[in-house]
Amino acid sequence: MLICIPGVNPQGTMQNSWQSDNHCLSNLSLKLLYLHAELFHSHHGLLEEYVQSLFDEGIVNDQFSQIQTLKSMEQPDLVVQLIDAYLVDVEMILSELTSYSDFPDVDFSKVTLLAHKVKDRSSCIGAEHVRLACDELIQASVQMNKQNFVRALSWIKKEFSCTQDKLESYAQHGHADGA
């Protein structure tokens, strides 16, 4: 650890106060920059491992990798904004779908349309589990089978909840370092 005493350089010899402080600050600044770089790379490595785990679990697909490449110096949190928009949109659509499950007579044409919206949005962001779960809902809707619709909706909501937790965690940690 470097301790600066005004008028004394780190080797213990006398210098004028400005030179000594400047030398100490530059050494301290270099050490802080090095520490920050180490922490950044360590955190970035952990974030990369987390993203890999999302791929390994099948939560996300290659489209998610494409989304990650969209960030830039001008818009470092663009990926976080896309994730947030996806989560809000799908949450609203799932809420609307849930309201249809409460009706005695389900309007399956609207259910099909909404299921396709969830599937399209999930495809765009790379949310693979949610996208796959949409196929069951679409099939139940085409068959006009309310029991299968309710079961498929429950599955989508479960997959979305898991995906939401994972993407929110990614967004929180990715945003912390500008990744």
What this model shows, in words?
With 179 residues, the chain is mainly alpha-helical. The protein is 76% helix and 0% strand. It has helices at 17-57, 62-68, 78-101, 108-125, 128-142, 146-176. Helix 4 (108-125) packs antiparallel against helix 5 (128-142). The protein is elongated, with a radius of gyration of 26 Å. The two termini are 31 Å apart. GO terms for molecular function: histidine phosphotransfer kinase activity; protein histidine kinase binding. Its main location: cytoplasm. Keywords: Cytokinin signaling pathway, Two-component regulatory system.
Ranges with pLDDT <50 over ≥5 residues? Answer: 1-25, 30-44
The count of strands amounts to 0
Number of helices: 6
Q: How much is the average pLDDT? A: 78
Structural class call reads mainly alpha
Approximate helicity band: over 70%
Distance separating the two termini: 31 Å
Summarize it.
One of its GO terms (molecular function) is histidine phosphotransfer kinase activity. It comes from Ziziphus jujuba (Chinese jujube). The protein is built from 6 helices and no strands.
Keywords:
disordered N terminus, 6 helices, 179 residues
What does the secondary structure layout of this molecule look like, with pairings?
Layout: H1 17-57, H2 62-68, H3 78-101, H4 108-125, H5 128-142, H6 146-176
Helix pairs in contact: 1-6, 3-4, 3-6, 4-5, 5-6
